[in-house]
Write a structure and sequence with these properties.
By secondary structure, this protein is of the alpha/beta class. It is 31% helix and 15% strand. The chain contains four helices and three strands. The chain is globular, with a radius of gyration of 14 Å.
Length: 107
């Protein structure tokens, strides 16, 4: 759940195939932190964002480590693809392996 500490899962991280993180409202960003904690700790299983997940949040959620989504409301596939394709390079570091644009510019 949104208020749960993801670090409580770390002792069992190798035994988990799926972790579903609840987003009770689109304004609740605690799930982003949970995803990053799990990915940085080495979790390689499926990480699902569920609940009030909006199409414009999905690119950011992917960068934090989410790889599947269970939104309450349907997401238009075309709109999602445009959102995912909007920026070729991210600006900041995240849990993914994308190189930030500033690092590409300044080595």
């Amino acid at each position: 759940e949104a208020g749960d500490d993801a670090r409580a899962l770390l002792p069992q991280i190798g035994q988990l195939a799926l972790v579903e993180v609840s987003f009770p409202t689109y304004r609740d960003g605690r799930g982003y932190s949970a995803a990053r904690i799990l990915r940085e700790a080495g979790y390689t299983g499926e990480l699902r964002a569920a609940g009030d997940v909006l199409v414009d949040q999905i690119p950011h959620m992917r960068r934090c480590g989410f790889d599947s989504f269970a939104p309450e409301a349907p997401v238009d596939a075309e709109t999602l693809q445009r959102s995912l394709d909007r920026y070729a390079n991210p600006y900041q570091r995240a849990a993914d392996t994308a190189t930030p644009i500033w690092k590409l510019r300044h080595g």
